[in-house]
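Weekly puzzle thread! Below is a chain. First person to post its structure in token form gets bragging rights.
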Amino acid sequence: MNLLTVKNITKHYSGHTALSDVSLDVPQGSIYGLLGPNGAGKSTLIRVINRITMPDEGSVIFNSHPITDEDIYQIGYLPEERGLYKKMKVGEQALFFARLKGLSRKDALKALKEWFVRFGIESWWDKKVEDLSKGMAQKVQFITTVLHRPKLLIFDEPFSGFDPINANLLKQEILRLRDEGATVIFSTHNMASVEEICDHITLIDKSKNILSGSVDEVRRRFGENVFELTYGGVSADEMQQLLQPIADVLSMTPIADSPYDLCRVRLNNGVQVRDAIAKVNDAVELRSFREVIPSMNEIFIRAVEGSL
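Winning reply:
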């Protein structure tokens, strides 16, 4: 079941097309990566989902009905441009945002205490926002985004400004929120994070959706029939001759402090993997044979360059 469906969204700004017939389905309880280079249209799409701006064409379906202003209370949005009031105290401001999201003062204080303890920031309650670092302020804004337990969370570059330890803390919290039932849209340029936490992705480029699917399915879809095998018992020349009828040899590398070598090949069209394994296994000491799946970073670059 999809919590959010975007249907054929088009948006123009004074002669510029920000989105052109973009559609996507966000499954309930998933982490959905929204990818694309700067200026591709990701931020415009997020603003359309949040009803900050209205599309020229198309529709947004939220929880099985056309999205309304009331549905925005079920969405938590952490924009890339952070927006805390610098002169206010942290606790006062967090409580203010919680009340705006509909929480009573009692419930807001209880939830804020739990989150401040979880993030180890209890001592920040009476600090002014202007005294916080960028990363510290972002922790506070993350808390105010998720505090009211919305059905849909939208994070735009949430790891910007975080050191690796705090970025990992945030990843774990996003995964925990997903496991507790939240659906997450996650806009980022960080492809390593996509592989770590995203279930599905959409890649937008030049205002269009050019690639969608589950992360595993997308990576396998754009594999190039490349395999790595670890072997021993024959020389590099003998291995090359053995493989010549079935594959292009891309590289051959001795493994340091080991009697084995590593060979990367691209199987010829029509060659079955099981037949390749059988042929090699009969002639050498075969230690491993694995497919090389492209990373999301490689796929992103190839897609944007138009070489997929």
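Puzzle host: Confirmed. Bonus trivia for everyone else. The longest strand covers residues 2-13.
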